[in-house]
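User: Structure please.
Assistant: Input sequence and predicted structure:
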Amino acid sequence: MSMSGTMSTMKWMGRSARNRAEAVGHQMKDRALHARLERAAEENERLRTENETLRDTVEESRTDHRRIMEMLESRLMTVESGDDVEIEVEKKSHRGRRLLFLMMLAGGAWAWMRSKTGGGSSDDVWERPGSSMGGSGTTGGATGMGGSSGDPGMAT
């Protein structure tokens, strides 16, 4: 074979390989384009669904807003017309406060009566257990909450 025959075969094979490479490149580009189109279609559908959901939410909110405004306007018209408007006010129960106040009054009266009678007995709840009660007078001082140390039956 001559040199020119070899060159023409190489040119022909080069063209064929080049054509195949171009075809493979186009196929890859087409697959990438199709993948992008599919992703775009999926994103489009997702956004459409989200848009519908948001639209429904806004419409529901508007409906609630209109209903509230109508109620306020009707209430305002009632107040402006001078009709008797009854406003329900829940009364608070003060039972606990009253009970505490009465208990404080009773305790104060009891303490005052004890101080006027001059002390208590040997079973006085105000005496501290274990305190020494040697014959030194009263332990309660001016409040009258202590008993005298000379009470019969006192433990020393």
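The CA atoms of residues 29 and 42 lie 20 Å apart.
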